From TrEMBL:
GO cellular component terms, semicolon-separated: membrane
Organism: Rhizobium chutanense
Gene3D superfamilies: LemA-like domain (1.20.1440.20)
Transmembrane segments annotated in the record for this chain: 6-23
Family classification: Belongs to the LemA family.
Topology with respect to the bilayer: Single-pass membrane protein
Protein name: LemA family protein
Subcellular location: Membrane
InterPro entries: LemA-like_dom_sf, MamQ_LemA
Entries under Pfam families matching the protein: LemA (PF04011)
Length: 183
């Protein structure tokens, strides 16, 4: 009788241990997603300043600038929990921002403008921080996904509603291509 009771206690403690590990992993993934969300918000807040600076120099590039603003608004409209949708929207926004930065090559005065240079440097710094946040999130999502899928934690995960997380990844194959550099 004591042996059976001891076995039941050990099993209960093991289930609690697994459950707590799953909760910890879920919280890490949520915290990591929050980090991405913060960086994306910072980037979205920087975009209007960048656009206004470029507008003064590149008035006839209006369609490019309007596209960036439109994509920014679409990216912000994606629900926070929709990782795949947000990744796709942010990828399109990143491409459009790249075209705005490329405008500086066509406008030497814009390239020399201190405000534009500062905004561009801020954007580059932010993109680096966003890349780190994405890696952190994907690592946290991977850890949670491993626990949700591996035995015996998958038994506990299924009983308590733990689910896999989507990765924040590039969905556009053009973004994966190696850029060609010509001199």
């Amino acid at each position: 009788m004591y042996v059976i009771l001891a076995i039941l206690v050990v099993i209960a403690l093991y289930i609690v241990f697994i459950y707590n590990g799953l909760v910890r992993s879920r919280q890490m993934a949520e915290e990591a997603w929050s980090g991405i969300d913060v960086q994306l918000k910072r980037r979205a807040d920087l975009i209007p300043n960048l656009i206004e600076t470029v507008k003064g120099y590149a008035a006839h590039e209006k369609s490019t600038l309007e596209e960036v603003v439109s994509l920014r608004n679409k990216a912000q409209a994606v629900p926070s929990g929709d990782v795949a949708g947000r990744a796709q929207a942010e990828g399109l926004l990143g491409q459009a921002l790249g075209r705005v930065i490329a405008l500086a090559e066509a406008y030497p005065d814009l390239k020399a403008n201190q405000n534009f240079a500062e905004l561009q440097a801020s954007l580059e710094t932010m993109e680096g921080e966003l890349q780190m946040a994405r890696r952190y999130y994907n690592g946290a999502a991977r850890d949670l996904n491993v626990k949700v899928e591996s035995f015996p934690s998958n038994l506990v995960a299924g009983q308590f509603g733990f689910a896999k997380r989507d990765y924040f990844e590039i969905t556009n194959e053009a973004d994966r291509a190696v850029p060609s550099v010509k001199f």
